[in-house]
Amino acid sequence: MLMAWAGRGRVGWLGRQWAVVLAAVGAGLTFVVSGIIRHTYPFGEVSRSTNDLGQQVVPMYAHYRDLLTGQGVGDLLFNWSSGFGVPFLADFMAYVGSTLSWIVLLFPRDHIDLALFLVDVVAIALAAGAMTAYLRRLRPGPAWIAVVAGISYGACGWAIDDAAYMTVWLNGLVAFPVLCLLCEWILRRRSVVPLLVTPFVVALLWTSAFYTVYMATIGAAIVVVARILAYDANISWRERLSGAVRCVLAMMLGIALAAPLLLPTFLAVRAARPSPDAVFSPIGPVVFLARLLPGSEGVGTTPGLAVGTVMLLLAVSFPLNRAIPGRERIAWTAAVVLTMLSLQIGITHRIWHGFDTPNGSPYRQAFVVAGLLVIVGWMSAAAGVRSVLTVATAVGAAGLLCLVAWNVRSTTTTTHRVVPLLIVIGVVAWLAGRRPGRIRRGAVVVLVGAVLLEVTLSSAAIDERRSKFLSAKGPWGAQHAAVRELVRSADDWPRYRVAAGAGQTVNDPMLIGGQGPQYYSSTIPDRVSQQLLDLGFGYSSYGRATVDPQNPVVDAIFATGARVVPGEVPSLRKYEVSPLVTVRSAASFRSDDPGPFGAQESALGADVYTVPAVRAEKGAEVIVSGRRGDLVVAPTPEAQTAPTAGGVRGRSVETRLLASCVPGSEVWLAAPSFVGSVLVAGRGWVTNLSSKVNSPGIYAGAPMVRVGIVDADGVVAVPIRVDSATRLPAAPIGCMDANKLKAAVHELRAVRPAVKVAGHGLGLRLEPSGAPTTVVVAVVRIDGWSCSVDGGGTRTPDSRAGLLAIPLPAGATEVSCTYQPPGLSLGLIMATAALLILLGLGLAGHLLDIWRSKRLESNRLDLPA
């Protein structure tokens, strides 16, 4: 608890600058030491690449490093490596964009995980330092308490539990105190200089993490409102409101400067694969408030509000601290309470998240509450907590919360130990603070050490609890290196693509290399996702992550000429496929076959499948029915309730899908919503879709799978197993004729234009044809592409079965296509306008200074001698 001398010092023995540095170093050090305790990478074999960090952030940072070093294919606008070619700017903004992303250049590519760890450490340190700087600017007080406050904010529960594995979110943690500091500068210094500097800093922050920085901006607005309401009565409302208007103007100009990146990202998010609408449900008050306790963990379900026991005690003491003027206590207490309530109310929840309720982690804005708690705690400490009643109330409230939340799911053993211990140490330190000399200085050392220990142990406890139910990907190792070497040995882009597979992550094309189909991103264009699903791809996360069916027709369509075959010793397999750019007849081919079989044929431009009528074999244990043309297969009630050999009721039943096809053709099963197993030749029983999957057919779907070869009698019998009622399409089986596919590929390879792919565009030269033709690029057509023929005017390309298509007149020899994210031009216009306004403000300020100086000089000349 705060000592009696808390309000006595002004500058303090640490000094203003050293307080910022010590807070930054202390916060970063607690994160490092918690990793040492947990033996997580890079201090042990336990992986820290939880969920999105391993699946998305690390691969995208690896791809970004490749772009910076000239080793990647594509640029900031377009990514040729993933999903057969997808935009990259929105991914950069959502996962990579950070003022710290350059750190990846300090490490070799096989240490990308170490680079991300360092980014986390530096971001946490910057947040702590920035908060300390703001607190010292807001109100003078003991420097050591400012250091404690900064560390408590930088390593708050939200930072460790929610943001440490979604690295880019930490930029919002940094942005909140920085924005508060900028607004404080504007409010105090009524000149044009803050208005000129602030927008550039705001633009830098918004381009680092627009998502959480948006939340930080709302938080800064709350702080400004509280500051204005808490002003002395002798400050007029006109002066207060003018200061607020200046803050708003600076923020808007800064956001406008970032528009070339923000607007295309906003439009890309709108065009991304949608997820089902989520309904926000507030949690109980005890569960909510329990997250104020250090060491508590509840990522994805509860808000990370914890800022340590000492800062919690100080924050609770604030409304009762009579050393603070009443208007300030009312204004700031209302700000904190209302902000906490806003996390639990539907409409304000939507505002916090940009009117798009996320499907996970509904409390992503909790770091703002953590920041507000630290601010009011500092204000109470700076004023000095001398009342025994105030101390007793704060201790009683914290102790009561600890007891009430003792068995709440989010609390940990660390919570049970550190909170009572820190309360005792705080009270003893507060009592010792009334004593002069060594006792007081010793109390400071003990309390600061206890806070550092608490933050460290809390971080370790949070990481340990979270790791028990969230999966993690391992850091770069020998398997990564082996696969990357195989991919690089076969690379011949843009003649054909090399698929690295998904042995390490869903984003292996970015992590390992090559130009494979795998892609997982919240900004995946809906057209890309839907096109791949239509072609027989599997998916998870509502279609935001794709699963390669490893189908030869798909490989032929998208020029996948080499593929890594997973195994203990991975190997490489090569195929003869059509080129990346094919020249076809002006008239398009459209297949009449249903499902992915017809979609593949239309994209290929040839008939290679036979799609037979299918029936499910009935039996004593199987019910077969149909609705809306689908097949519904289910165990009989007797089979469902019959006990197995182990006495467990409910068991799998087996049946067969029957059809007739040409002998020797390949049998493919396309049943994305089929929950059960299928017998695959050479592999045994393979799970098509697990019953544990959330919302089969919505959240996840199975890729089409090769099940065998048609026997000489032409009978197709595909054994399947089901545990409960499951649905299959009306036409789940397609028989692919390998000879027809070979002939189709040979025809597409007959004309091979010279292709050059560079950055976000491609160009090609071809021999003139005596008839109109169509050039088809093996890229899913999305908005933003423009093409020209023989140097003529640009036009929007056509779509042929979902692929990029450019009609050519007879005799055409050159084609050039460029991708530009929608909104980029408008964003550049907005940024230019903001820059002109800033130049105008600067000029006006300069002229005003000249006028004032001349007026002052004139007044001096008019004075009597």
Overall description:
It comes from Kribbella aluminosa. This is Membrane protein YfhO. The protein is built from 27 helices and 29 strands. The chain has 865 residues and is of the alpha+beta class. The strands form nine sheets. A five-stranded antiparallel β-sheet has the order 12-15-20-17-18, with no helix packed on it. α2 packs across α3, α7 packs antiparallel against α8 and α9 (210-229) packs parallel to α16 (366-383). The model is unreliable at 1-15 (pLDDT under 50).
Summarize it:
Helices cover 47% and strands 15% of the residues.
Features:
865 residues; alpha+beta; five-stranded antiparallel beta sheet; 27 helices; 29 strands; globular
Output the structural class: alpha+beta
Report how far apart the termini are: 63 Å
Major β-sheet strand ordering:
12-15-20-17-18
Number of domains: 4
Number of strands: 29
Stretches where pLDDT is under 50 for at least 5 consecutive residues are: 1-15
* Number of helices, where a helix is a run of at least 4 consecutive DSSP H or I residues: 27
**Percent in strands:** 5-15%
**Nearest-integer average pLDDT:** 91
**Over the alpha carbons, how many angstroms does the gyration radius reach?**
32 Å
Query: What oligomerization state is this entry in?
Result: single chain
Tell the overall outline. globular
How many strands, what sense, and barrel or not for the largest sheet? 5 strands, antiparallel
State the share of residues found in helices, binned by percent. 40-55%
